[in-house]
Amino acid sequence: MASRPLFILYLSLILFVYLLIVTFYYLNDTLPTPLPVEIKPTNEEIFALQDNVRIPFRTKMECDGYNEFREIPFEQLWFWPSVRIFIGIWSVADKYEIRHLIRTLNLKQRRNLAGDIVDFKFILGIPSDNNPELKLKLKAENDTYGDLVMLDMVENMNNGKGYYYWKWIAEQLDTTRYDYVSKVDDDLFIHFQNLALNLRPLTRGHLYYGNKSPHSFFIRGTIEVLSVDLAHLIASFPFKKREWNGPEDVQLGAFLNKHAKSLNTIGENCLIFTDPRIRKVRRKMWRPWASPNSIAIHWLKDIRAWKGVIDLYFSDDN
To answer: How many domains in the chain?
Structure first.
């Protein structure tokens, strides 16, 4: 019973100190200003900044990439052993035009690779609406190009697609042909050669690579690169709704940190970034300009927004 008055006294003292601090700030008109909360812009707001605007471009980024920070200059990456990468581009059924554009650019890139191998397919879930015309279009598209994968699940972003994608990688893809497997969004331009070069010096096992949110445990879902062994690790566990329902990048990071006995998490926060044209409305991952060494540019949600990428990296193509 004697401890109760002491507890009340202690609590009163804390409250008194708090009131003193608040009173001090109030009298001096120096109450701290809350940090601004970034409001997610609409696609229309973003495209207004991208339409007919060139992507700022310089010969060198204003920051150092992961390998540069480790004192491996970009020019030396060519001397490391080549790598083999599979990229799964997450899409949805009705995005035909975006897929066709990405497919065209990626096939051009693949022909120009120097020693490395980069393959890709588009990853879809089963359309939620039973639309016969849509199904016929998807069949025709896949009959023509052979690059669509329909996961055995209803289309979704954050309710298990991540698990079933990595499970498909482990069970349906010949992973002996690859060192790394990746998931990317369909609003992302990936420079195949630069991605391969920057992966060359890295470990072939237990790798979890991409743009990493500061002070967090996960790689942002814009592009997630795993070594093949981690895809097999995921597939070795049964699907649990509580582990995979929620933002797919956060859930992947939580799963790997929980279950992987060893995990080499590498953040590439310089060369993977948001379109420099949209600084005013989208600051996450933003960089002021692109360069010849950039790996990926995010937030290209309209076909016309891709023109800036084509002008930079494909202007010499016939």
So the answer is: 1
